[in-house]
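From: lab user (bench 3)
To: helpdesk
Subject: output format question, protein + iron/sulfur cluster

Hello, I'm new to running complex predictions and I'm not sure whether the block I got back is the full result or only part of it. Here's what I submitted:
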Amino acid sequence: MSRIPLDPRTAPPFQAAAKALLGDAQLRKNVRHATDVIQNKRRKLVEEKQDWQLLRESARQIRAHALQHLDVYLDEFERNFTRAGGTVHWARDAAEAQRIVVGLVKESGSSEVIKIKSMTTEEVQLNNALEAAGIHAYETDLAELIIQLGEDQPSHIVVPALHKNRAQIREIFRRTMNLPDLGDKPADLADAARRFLREKFLRVKTAVSGANFLIAETGGICIVESEGNGRMCLTLPDTLISVVGIEKVIPRWQDLEPLIQLLPRSATGERMNPYNSLWSGVHPGDGPRAMHVVLLDNGRTNVLADSEGRETLQCIRCAACQNACPVYRQTGGHAYGSVYAGPIGAILTPQLMHMEHSQTLPYASSLCGACYEVCPVKINIPEVLIHLRNKVVEQNGWYTPESLAMKAVAAAFRSERRFRAAQRLGRIAESPLVKSEKQKFSIVGQKQTGNTGWIGWLPGLLGGWTDTRDLQAMPEETFRDWWEKRGKA
Ligand code: SF4
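Helpdesk reply: Thanks, we reran it on our side. This is the complete output you should expect:
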């Protein structure tokens, strides 16, 4: 069970949290196994699509265009959804979204809600607000149910319980559902969850969901899912409340075509999600009698205002970047201290939080580019990470030890005279630290001379370099010296 809070305002810095989690061998094994399985399935399905790159480009253009004209398309969505009998609410921040949803649930006369997996409700910590108001929320997605019953935290956008293996899940179900004889096959676990949830689907009359897309042209809302629990929540209750980030709007019905091909392949390695639900407003005798959409800003307009960070909002929450990221695959999701983990979390969370919190997240990346390679809407995550690192430096001022060191290095690199002087000084300064065991590291057949060798310990902040590796000492003869000598010879 993770004790690391997924609230960027109180979570520990990424490096500290990651260090703690790297010691959990079982968690790392679970995360690597699950991400390997999803990546392999995704790879095969991408290979069979000849037009994959065209689909990506088309999806990028649709999402970028929608963001450029967000005001127009949100207005259009509101008009069409309202005309169809739904009600639109606008929430500036998490507190406002919580207030609106709690008010609507109370109005519906219910003290319980069933919930479809939703990142936006996680983001605004809706379950806590509902509990505080005396309303119990039942998660109906299998992975979310595991997290809820295990009193754990989600660690992945698409598969929140990815850090748990089957034996751990079985233990949670046995304990919380009082099933001492529960088997450990996937079918046993799914059956237990089905029986547990069926009673809730039939009894609870109010549902809360998120959404994958809002369609301006029709006033429609789209949710894609694999288990059918979403379809139950969308159709059985009397009241349906959907909390959706404002960036989720797309202009036309037809725009779903590339998106709905890219999303399941990127997310779970499926050709198509088994359940694709679309609804707009209410209809007598069919589905919920009251439908509400809460359009959530919570920092998104600030992201939109930043021309270099804006493309972050193109995200369709497929989590392909998480599965591909070598950093996420080692640490799992809890280290990110936010419901958005992995590369997308590293760029989205600091921007939603105005960079006041999560300053370490833009550094939670090796900048290898694997995330950019797999992103179905072509978000250049490494570029946004660098942009955010610049912001962190600006925010912290120019007088931190790191920025002063960088200034000194920049000054040395700008002048040949200063550069040579720095090299001479460096050689003198390092000499007491260089290991004397020269032969240990020598390459067979090459003679080592002078203080050629390795440094195993550096003082202070520089110790970060030598904690886990040795640093090669500076060569006696620099390239410039060698070149000049060669010219004279
Ligand atoms: S950034 Fe791209 S790859 Fe990552 S979750 Fe969003 S859409 Fe998927």
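A quick orientation on your result: Residues 25-47 form the longest helix (23 residues). Let us know if anything else is unclear.
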